[in-house]
Amino acid sequence: MRGAGMPRFRFTTWGPVRGDCGHVHRTRPAAEACLRRDQHGCARQGGYSDRRIRRIFNRADIASYDIRYGPGTRDAED
Ligand SMILES: [Zn+2]
Question: The whole model's pTM is what?
């Protein structure tokens, strides 16, 4: 019964300005690390990252989505 009844979320990061990171992260900490890398990268260039963690199910969720709202759903802890 491995994983039965548990929706297996994946995570990505997305912001209206920065767009998505293009990854399907298996865990929230992995997505948080990606977010931090992007924030550091933006800070080096004098900007900031508007990305947030988004909850998705699979790669199809970041292949096509409404760019006004972003892929997947907002993460509850965000
Ligand atoms: Zn990422």
Answer: 0.85
